[in-house]
UniProtKB/TrEMBL annotation, chain A:
Keywords: ATP-binding, Nucleotide-binding, Transport
MF-aspect GO terms: ATP binding; ATP hydrolysis activity
InterPro entries registered for this protein in UniProt: AAA+_ATPase (IPR003593), ABC_transporter-like_ATP-bd (IPR003439), ABC_transporter-like_CS (IPR017871), Metal_Ion_Import_ABC (IPR050153), P-loop_NTPase (IPR027417)
Protein name: ABC transporter ATP-binding protein
Automatic annotation (TrEMBL), chain B:
Keywords: Membrane, Transmembrane, Transmembrane helix
Source organism of this protein record: Candidatus Heimdallarchaeum aukensis
Membrane topology designation: Multi-pass membrane protein
Pfam families the UniProt entry points to: ABC-3 (PF00950)
GO annotation, cellular component aspect: ATP-binding cassette (ABC) transporter complex
Keyword Transmembrane helix: yes
Top-level taxonomy: Archaea, Promethearchaeati, Candidatus Heimdallarchaeota, Candidatus Heimdallarchaeia (ex Rinke et al. 2021) (nom. nud.), Candidatus Heimdallarchaeales
Protein name: Metal ABC transporter permease
Keyword Membrane among UniProt keywords: yes
GO biological process: response to zinc ion; transmembrane transport
InterPro entries with a match to the protein in the record: ABC_BtuC-like, ABC_TroCD
Residue ranges crossing the lipid bilayer per the database entry: 20-40, 45-63, 69-87, 96-115, 127-156, 168-192, 198-218, 225-246, 252-269
Domain of life where this protein originates: Archaea
Family: Belongs to the ABC-3 integral membrane protein family.
Main location: membrane
Length: 256, 340
């Protein structure tokens, strides 16, 4: 319930000048290899953005740079109107959720679905503490949002790929984030399940105002679900509507 | 059954037997607890390397004529930090590090032992251990150290659980992953170091891995796994102490053999393995693996969609033949081919 209230507050305060992620001339390198070169990017509250690009173009690197997992060699990152220099402060980390590229779980990993979702709340609970009743309520609510509450007591490894991905979304939601970054959330899923997951993301975006940034390979899905698409090939090559004819040209160029 | 009663007589009357008993108890509990996270994190071999470094430390201490415990602890902690650093920076592949470090420290240990002209019984004691000969100093250090290790691991249970699940998510959510990983390696090194005298350098690592591996076979819940792992640790260490006394065998070897027996039993009887046999069953219609809630969710074109091939609440599949179809499924192409 509280998630709903928090999110409603977010939407009511919504302002189009609200830039929550701002990258200025950000470059990233692995050793001597430049992975990203002078990226300029603004993400506003409440947007639903798709990121496309060929393999090795730096899409994942871009997400990881925003998340503070990789340090840029130059440039400036602002998150929620705060300059990030080195470590991301805790109150900002609490607003960001991340779902890494899908790797199937070990079938026997000792975790139930509800345990996995509870992991999303660990940073709020804090070290040397146990989850409270409120934490359990949040977990239940997050599972309801992705319609997986009936499977709370199943081992995570026993679910299908799509169901596992929905659990990961629930885990990300358990922190009640303002922005959700996803790395190819549907790469392992068939078309039906892909749509199912994208519908859930759309609902989260529309109903709760959660900003969603997702890397995607399927252009058809991008065009159907997102209003803004960012194409990356070491540097920013396109930023705009996915239904623009210019986007199609750039995609043709980039993939040939 | 004289020696059977002897055991309990000794336990009631002699302090060396009481020390052995409490040593077995706490090594069993704490080894079981830390083992769970070592196993889930996939650090089993890193731990093995640490154990052998500790042995080199012990050999050096004997050569220099110092109390081995201090040198062992210093060696162990340095090894933990070194292994952790090389592993973190991805300087080389994990198995190569272990192969190189492991053998180098064994070589060092052998050099130290051969430099020490007269073969000392101390070396034997460190290699094979004897739980009945745990000194007072060693006992006190062991109880304090393992107490701290146990409390820290249980206190940071959530964090280690998330790190073993996915360290990227852990980092993003603000958990100091690198720090905690180093801490885990140091706690592991300490556990190995203080238990060395009781179990022996060659076998001590089994006290950490085997109970956790046995517990892994039984449950999908982390708390239950921690509980089971330390329970199995205690059963094997105290059972092993008792059996070794009764049969006059090496205590470390008996303890490890007993825990291996429990592991084998768990592996064979594991509900996970038995279930796996079912879950990897193919759907007759789409040839897709049946899993989870399983209306063949992965395969939308499957014509068996309307035949429920469920798991029940315990995760056991009720086979299709046991359930009447909700409606007659339309036939596949390959069904028609089969009919021909």
């Amino acid at each position: 319930m509280q998630l709903k209230q928090e999110s409603n507050n977010l939407t009511s305060n919504r302002d189009h000048s609200d830039v929550i992620v701002c990258l200025k001339d950000v470059s990233v390198a692995y050793g001597k290899n430049i992975a990203l070169y002078k990226i300029n990017l603004d993400i506003e509250k409440g947007e639903f953005i798709g990121i496309v690009g060929p393999n090795g173009s730096g899409k994942t690197t871009l997400l990881k740079t925003v998340l503070g997992l990789i340090k840029p060699i130059q440039g400036n990152i602002r998150l929620f109107n705060q300059n990030i220099d080195g470590k991301i402060p805790r109150e900002i980390k609490n607003k960001i959720s991340y779902i890494p590229q899908f790797t199937p779980f070990d079938k026997n990993f000792p975790a139930l679905v509800e345990d996995v979702v509870m992991m999303g709340r660990y940073n709020k609970i804090g070290m040397f503490r146990v989850p409270s009743k409120e934490d359990r309520e949040r977990v239940k609510h997050a599972l309801e949002l992705v319609k997986m509450d009936n499977m709370a007591h199943r081992p995570i490894g026993h679910l299908s790929g799509g169901q596992q991905q929905k659990v990961m979304i629930a885990q990300a939601l358990a922190t009640s984030p303002s922005i959700l970054l996803l790395d190819e959330p549907t790469s392992a899923l068939d078309f039906k399940m892909t749509k199912n997951v994208m519908d859930i993301l759309t609902q989260l975006n529309k109903t709760y105002g959660i900003t969603i940034v997702t890397i995607h390979h399927n252009l058809r899905i991008i065009k159907e679900y997102t209003k803004r698409v960012i194409a990356i090939n070491k540097t920013l090559v396109y930023d705009g509507s996915p239904n623009d004819s210019q986007f199609d040209e750039i995609i043709d160029e980039m993939y040939i | 059954m004289g020696s059977f009663l002897d055991f309990f007589y000794a336990l009631a009357n002699y302090s060396w037997m009481q020390r052995a008993f409490y040593t077995a108890l706490i090594v069993g509990i704490v080894g079981g607890i830390i083992g769970v996270f070592i196993l889930l994190k996939g650090m089993v071999f890193l731990g093995q390397a640490i154990a052998h470094t500790a042995f080199a430390g012990a050999a050096l201490a004997i050569l220099l004529g110092i109390e081995p415990l201090y040198i062992i602890i210093i060696f162990g902690v340095i090894a933990a930090l070194g292994v952790g650093y090389v592993n973190e920076k991805k300087i080389m592949k994990e198995d190569i590090i272990i192969g190189v470090i492991f053998t180098f420290f064994m070589a060092l240990a052998i050099i130290f032992i051969t430099l020490n002209k007269q073969y000392s019984t101390d070396v034997n004691a460190i290699l094979f251990g004897n739980i009945l000969l745990v000194s007072k100093l060693n006992f006190v250090v062991l109880i304090i150290t393992l107490g701290i290790v146990g409390v820290l691991i249980l206190g940071l249970k959530k964090e280690y659980y998330l790190i073993t699940f996915n360290s990227d998510i852990a980092t993003v959510s603000g958990i100091p992953v690198k720090l905690l990983e180093y801490l885990l390696l140091i706690l592991l090194a300490l556990t190995i170091d203080v238990s060395l005298k009781a179990i022996g350098a060659i076998l001590v690592f089994a006290m950490i891995v085997t109970p956790a591996a046995a517990a892994y076979q039984w449950t999908f819940k982390i708390n239950k796994m921690l509980l089971l792992s330390s329970l199995i640790g205690v059963i094997s260490s105290i059972g092993g102490l008792f059996l070794s006394y009764l049969l006059n065998l090496s205590s470390g070897a008996t303890i490890v053999s007993l825990s291996t027996l429990i592991f084998l039993f768990s592996f064979i009887m594991s509900p996970k393995r038995i279930k796996t046999g079912f879950t990897t069953a193919e759907c007759k219609f789409c040839r897709h693996v049946i899993n989870g809630e399983s209306y063949c969710l992965d395969e939308p074109e499957c014509r068996a969609l309307d035949i429920p091939h469920y798991h029940d609440d315990k995760g056991i599949i009720i086979l299709k033949k046991d359930i009447k179809p909700l409606s007659t499924p339309t036939k596949h192409k390959h069904d028609k081919e089969e009919e021909k």
